[in-house]
Structures are given as C-alpha cells and as structure tokens.
Amino acid sequence: MAEHKQGNGSPLVASALGRETDYPQQYDPEVLYPVPRQHNRDALQVRGWPWFGFDLWYAYELSWLNERGLPQVALAALTLPADSPYLIESKSLKLYLNSFNMTRFASAEAVRERMVTDLSARAGGPVQVRMHGPEAPLLQGKERLAQATLLDTLDIATEQYELDSSLLALAAGGGQHEACLYSHLLRSNCPVTGQPDWGSVVIDYAGPALDLVSVLRYLVSFRNHTGFHEDCVERIFTDLLALGDFSRLVVSAHYLRRGGLDINPCRSLQPLEPDMGRWARQ
C-alpha cells in the first residue's frame, strides 16, 4: 500500500483534515487516509511494542440504502489492532462512512463485509466491524469501575499544562499495589486543526504504588499537548511503564465524539477483548 507522505516528512500533508472538502455522493473507499503509526511512535523511544491493545471507534452516523432504495441506519463499532502499521485519519473515515449514504446494498451484512475489507486494507491489519441496530440497548461495560478511584476529587493546585512525564512519581513508602484510577480531565489537541479533544482516562494496574496527586497533575499536563488520541494513550502507557515493573497495566482513553465518531484507544501488557463500555458524556 502506498504511504500518504509528502516531501516535508509529515504524513498528514495530503489529508482532508482541516480542509474544506466535498462529500462523496457514492461509495468511495479511496477517501480513506492511512497514517503510519511509526511516525509518532519514534518519539517514544521504545524497543518493539511493549503493549497489546486496540483502537475502538464508534460510528454513530452510518446509513445506506437497501435494494429498494429505503434508507437504513446503524451504529458501527470498529476495532483496529494496535499492531497494525497504520491508523485511519478521522476525517477521511467520516467521508468514507458518508459515502455509503446514497449507495444500495443487499443487507447490513454486506455493508459490514465491505467495511471490513476496506478498513483492513488501509490499516494493514485485520479490522473488526460490529453492527448495532438503532434499537440496541445502551452499551455498558463499566462494572470494573465500581471500586475505582476518581482522581478528579483530589484538591490540588497545578500550573503545568505542557506535557511533562517528570510529574509522575511513585507513592511514598513504596510497596506493591493494585488499583483502578480514572479521570475525566484529559484534554489534548488535534495536531492538524488545533481543536481540543476531550476525554476520560482509565488506568488499571498492579505493580509499584502510584502517587495519585502526581498522576492527576501528569494527566492535566496534556492540556496544551498536540497529538492523535492513539498517540496520547501510548505516551501515557510508556511513561507509566517507565516507573517500574508492573504485572498488569491497562491504559484506555474514552474521547468525546466529533463528526459522529468517537475514538477509544486501549493499550495493555496482556491481550484483552475490546469491551470498553460508554461514558454518559460520550
């Protein structure tokens, strides 16, 4: 597959992101724009991939025509493996999904199969697609947070809004600990448009005890950081992993939707299934 990369070294120069774009009137897989993951992973300076994981996208504005011309609607859950060489740029995915709107398909399964084929080809790895009808119940999956610690209730002062991994620290007294932490205060910024991306972060770990205040300050320091959702999660994961020897570490981010899409990247030391549930504000 040809890599979308221009002479200045940026893999985004030719993308539609941040530009006025005409929406395709018929099905068109050519609008999908793959971005090499390695471009941003180089900055992490890690050997190999110290994680398993996936990027789980929810597409809320999927529609097509049946063979008699009657519009059909569905929600699609798209799962890209973290070890695929490419991620899919979000605006190109939106354009691709909208290209189904005026195209006839024999069934919802035909739409799903077409999406699997197209997205897998662009990502360079097997993409899973699940379809949910509009009457499907609200997706759940937050049971593990019942005993989790919400970091946002900590009464702290901070003035650091530029990403700074040195803010992370282990708890005084050391020792091993098992905990699930979460925060709704994550904000990063699109590296192309500069628009803010809002999200919630879950850190589920077993290993050296983390200092909770330091974790919250660290997450807040993403506030002026520019990076794709997937890159931010990989940065959090690798910065935490650098603190010590963890037997379990799962970092997931649940970003708010934009343009009918939300992105939910997850990285883990062990393989896991893409069942992340929903937040009310998503």
Automatic annotation (TrEMBL):
Q: Which residues form the signal peptide?
A: none
One BP annotation, GO: tRNA queuosine(34) biosynthetic process
Cellular component GO terms, alphabetical: cytoplasm
Q: In which pathway does it act?
A: tRNA modification; tRNA-queuosine biosynthesis
Q: Which residues form the NADPH-dependent 7-cyano-7-deazaguanine reductase N-terminal domain?
A: 23-130
- Binding annotation for substrate: I88, E89, S90, H229, E230
Alphabetic keyword roster: Cytoplasm, NADP, Oxidoreductase, Queuosine biosynthesis
InterPro entries the record matches: GTP-CH-I_C/QueF, NADPH_dep_7-cyano-7-deazaG_red, QueF, QueF_N, QueF_type2
Q: Where in the cell is it found?
A: Cytoplasm
List the Gene3D superfamilies.
Answer: 3.30.1130.10
Q: Name one GO molecular function term.
A: preQ1 synthase activity
Family the entry assigns: Belongs to the GTP cyclohydrolase I family. QueF type 2 subfamily.
General function of this protein: Catalyzes the NADPH-dependent reduction of 7-cyano-7-deazaguanine (preQ0) to 7-aminomethyl-7-deazaguanine (preQ1).
Enumerate the PANTHER family for this protein: NADPH-DEPENDENT 7-CYANO-7-DEAZAGUANINE REDUCTASE
Q: Which HAMAP family match?
A: QueF_type2
Q: How does it assemble?
A: Homodimer.
Protein name (database record): NADPH-dependent 7-cyano-7-deazaguanine reductase
Please report the organism this UniProt entry assigns to the protein: Natronospirillum operosum
